[in-house]
Design brief:
167 residues, Nucleoside Triphosphate Pyrophosphohydrolase, 18% helix
Length: 167
C-alpha cells in the first residue's frame, strides 16, 4: 500500500480498496498506532489532568494524559509509561475501560481508555520524563470540577470529554 507521507507521529496511505459491495474506490487513510487514554484517579478521588500547548490548534488544552504506544509495548505498559512521563506518578493499578476509533472516516487510530489508581512517585532512578516537545502543567480536579470544565467549554478535547463520562 503506497505511503505518500511518513512523519514522526503518523503516515498517510493512498490506495484503491474493494468495498463490501464489490465496487472499488480510491481511499486515503491516516495510519496511526494505537494510543492509550488515561484517567488517573488520586487517592482522594480527584482526577489528575494536564494542560499543554497543542500546535495544531495553537492553544493550550486541558486533557487527561494520553499517548501513542511504542513498538512492542502493551497497552498496560503504555499507561504506566505515559503516567510517569506526563504526571510524574506511577499507577499501582490500571483498569481497561474500553476502546474507540475517534475518526474512522479517515484515520485508523484506536484510543484505549484506562482508569489508573494507586498513584505513587516513581523510583528515584527512573529516567522517564515528558517528551522534548511537551511542556506540561499538572493539576488535580474533583470529578465535578472536571465535568463542569467540559460543560463550560474549558475542556474542548474530545477524548478527555469522553473519558470523564467513564468516571
Amino acid at each position: 500500500m503506497p505511503i505518500v507521507y511518513k512523519g514522526r507521529v503518523f503516515s498517510v496511505e493512498e490506495t484503491r480498496r474493494t468495498f463490501p459491495s464489490g465496487r472499488e474506490h480510491d481511499i486515503t487513510v491516516v495510519r496511526h498506532v494505537p494510543s492509550v487514554v488515561i484517567i488517573p484517579i488520586a487517592d482522594d478521588g480527584q482526577v489528575v489532568m494536564v494542560r499543554q500547548y497543542r500546535a495544531s490548534v495553537d492553544r493550550e488544552l486541558w486533557e487527561v494524559p494520553a499517548g501513542s504506544l511504542n513498538a512492542g509495548e502493551t497497552a498496560e505498559d503504555g499507561v504506566r509509561r505515559e503516567c510517569e512521563e506526563e504526571i510524574g506518578l506511577v499507577p499501582g493499578s490500571v483498569e481497561l475501560l474500553g476502546a474507540l476509533f475517534p475518526a474512522p472516516g479517515f484515520c485508523d487510530e484506536e484510543l484505549i481508555f484506562f482508569r489508573a489508581s494507586g498513584l505513587s512517585l516513581p523510583p528515584p532512578d527512573s529516567t522517564r520524563h515528558a517528551d522534548d516537545d511537551e511542556e506540561i502543567h499538572v493539576q488535580r480536579f474533583t470529578v465535578d470540577e472536571a465535568k463542569a470544565m467540559v460543560a463550560d467549554g474549558t475542556i474542548v478535547d474530545l477524548k478527555t470529554a469522553y473519558a470523564l463520562t467513564l468516571i
